[in-house]
Write a structure and sequence with these properties.
- The protein is mainly β.
- It has no helices and 11 strands.
- The strands form 3 sheets. Strands 2-5-10-7-8 form a 5-stranded antiparallel beta sheet, with no helix packed on it. A 4-stranded antiparallel beta sheet has the order 1-11-6-9, with no helix packed on it. It has a two-stranded antiparallel ribbon with strand order 3-4.
């Protein structure tokens, strides 16, 4: 277990396939309640409504991107909601119960359209929860095929 938010990580570049992989290692963590678990790059113990996890993305190309989130949470947290914000786009999602804080599920929460090329920020923030929001392992932005 490491201290959250150590330093300000640099921008994340897309891989050769255009996919952005965002995890705890390259996140800026703002808040006191987080814990970062190094073996899995997981951010957990999300206990305050003002806590934010964000990433700077570099050289984002315009287009539509599917958003996949790898997260974990017990069944009791199935109604907990969070918001993903990128540029002018917002997605509201619910935590998908995995019955364990260590068993992660990768779920698609929707898609976003990036209209302006260049750098931008992506943030995940709580909307509604009763206990810890979730354990967040990663967020992936996957470019949708253009035909």
């Amino acid at each position: 277990e490491d201290e959250p938010g150590a330093g300000r990580p640099g921008p994340v570049e897309a891989g050769r396939n255009g996919v952005f992989l965002l995890n705890g290692r390259n996140a800026a963590i703002q808040g006191d309640s987080f814990r970062y678990y190094e073996p899995f790059d997981t951010i957990g113990y999300w206990n305050h409504p003002k806590d934010t996890v964000s990433w700077k993305l570099a050289n984002v190309k315009p287009g539509d991107y599917r958003v996949m989130v790898s997260q974990a949470g017990p069944a009791a947290w199935k109604d907990h909601q969070y918001k993903l914000v990128i540029g002018g786009e917002q997605l509201i999602a619910k935590v998908a119960p995995t019955d364990s804080m260590n068993k992660h599920a990768e779920i698609e929460i929707g898609s976003v359209r990036i209209t302006d090329p260049g750098d931008c920020e992506l943030a995940v923030v709580p909307v509604e929860f009763k206990e810890a929001l979730m354990n967040l392992r990663s967020v992936r932005l996957i470019p949708e095929s253009r035909e």
